[in-house]
Design goal:
With about 450 residues, the protein is α+β, with helices and mostly antiparallel strands. It is built from 11 helices and 17 strands. Strands 8-9-10-13-14-17 form a 6-stranded mixed sheet, with helices on both faces.
Amino acid sequence: MKKIKRRLMKVKKVILWIAVIALLVALRTANCAPKVEQNTGKSAMYEQIQIFSDAITLIQQNYVDDVEPKKLIYGAMGGMLKALDPYSQFMDPDTYNEIKVETTGKFGGLGIEISIRDSLLTVIAPIDGTPAYNAGVKAGDKIVKINGELTRDITLIDAVKKLRGEPGTTVNLTILREGENKLLEFPIKRDIIKITSVKKFDVMEDNIGYIRLVEFQEDTEKEINKALASLEGKKISGLILDLRDNPGGLLNSAVDVSDKFLDNNEMIVSTRGRQKDQVIEFRAHNEGVPHNYPVVVLVNGGSASASEIVAGAIQDNKRGIVVGVKTFGKGSVQTVVPLSDGSALRITTAKYFTPSGRSIMNDGIDPDVVVEQKEYKEAPKDNAGDIFEGLDEKDVSAEGGSAPGGKKAVTEKPGEKTPYDHQLSTAIDILKGIIAYKDKGING
């Protein structure tokens, strides 16, 4: 009996500590509210704390097994944060340390950005050139199992832990894909993920420049400066900035990229939260030579976060045309707040807004010109010579061996031909029209 009483006293102290913290948070939040709202808020908080206290006491007194207070409190905080949104989470000390400090050794990954959408673990985008991308994982895929274990109610942090591992080891993903009538299995070998922000830059037909940007990192500005310098040295007449399947990255890098194409002091993005210091505006400070040629930004459902910031800035400032399909809609700021016992809260403290005031969160960016991607290859043209060539040669190996006369029979390998890119082709046509319109001096 004495043991139970001591345990209850311990629980009461924990509950009191939580009540004090909750009250302080409530009072801090209420400082900006009118007096009546402050009183109402405090009263409601006291009532809810009392319910929480009663629940813990009942569990301690009546639950079939003895439960440590820490387990109850950690479980309650985990549920509390999970109830807010998919990105807010409670991290116990071990989880927090994993995120805070890179432990010794190398960790392999798959190269996918993930989120929780409609309670399902969802691929925002596979990053170009990574194991997941090469295996055929697509933006919007729902991961229903990891190594045979269901992902129901999984947190983002737990999902990352399961996906990460020793380089060279395999993780099996079971995926639900829209339009498929069965689950898809993807065994993917983990690897060290090394990403170059600018995957490709080139000059296309009619002297149109093209930059494929796959993620926003610390070196993104340096890489895009190099790409722009090379393209502009070839006198490009317009630019396609391809942000498809770009899951985002660093806010500052998104601001730096947007800055290349906007006039000085034009708005790029703003963040808004409940506190005054969470309301921040990011504006262009372009003091160099303006890149004033026509711009088309390509986006799709895998374009998220920093990609949406760039697309929104270009679109709202009427600096270019956004082409493709609606973006993912990940536009929030998370702040990690350490607690006294080594655990931490990761909470959403602000949301991103485009220059015109549109919220990116969940809404995404709607393109100016909607263009769905078409999954097919350009049909080869029939050629009489190609059709009849080799029909007389009976000894041609099925695997591409030597034919009589010393000729090599060529077998096309899967994936060798570049698939027809309908969205890119449409973006080129749009830019051609804009350039022709501009060159003729037609006034709209």
